[in-house]
Each structure stands twice: as structure tokens, then as C-alpha cells.
# Entry
Amino acid sequence: MPLVPVDPAVVPRADETAVDRGLRLVRTLARATCFDEDHSTDPLLHGFLFLDQDRVRLYFRADGLPGVTAADVRTTGALTALISALPSLVRGEAEQTVADDGDPHCARVLDVTHW
# Structure
């Protein structure tokens, strides 16, 4: 098999896409679960769905809440604070969730796109 050397200093950097931003968000949340030594992460990231160029629906299972809770988030903007607050938002904002009959994967949706 031929080896193709690549010099990163010469290869132009590709522009970041919406998918790149969405996957970075998902990887960050999944990594928190992977490094939780006692595996007690709550809520637990259960899955995700790209809604459009700038929004991802994250699916969580949380102790004390029946079924799956979804959170619609933007993939742009100040994500650090949102990522830190998301677990408590999913667990504590049940009164702000709405049922989404169009999504068979969750019992309720929390919209934090403007958070």
C-alpha cells in the first residue's frame, strides 16, 4: 500500500460546516458520559438528529422522567454555557417542555435554541 505524505502546513484548512459544529457538540456531550467513572451520568445522551443547518435535537434519558426528553439546541453561538447547563435544564425544566406528536423518539421537547 503506498503511503501518501501530507504536510498540514501546506494543505489549506477546510471551512467548518454545520455538520462539523453539530458533531462537535454531540462529541462533547458523549465524552462527558465516557469519562464518568461510575457511569452515573444523568441525564444520559441517548441520540441526536440534525434538524437543519443550525439546529440539533439531542435525546436524553433522565432519572425520574418517563421516556426520552429531547432538547433542541443551536450549533452556533456560546455553546460552553449551554453544554454546562443542559443536564440541569433537561432535568429541571420539565414544566417548559412540550409534547411533540411528530417525533416518535421522545415524550417531550425542551426548546433551548434561544437560551
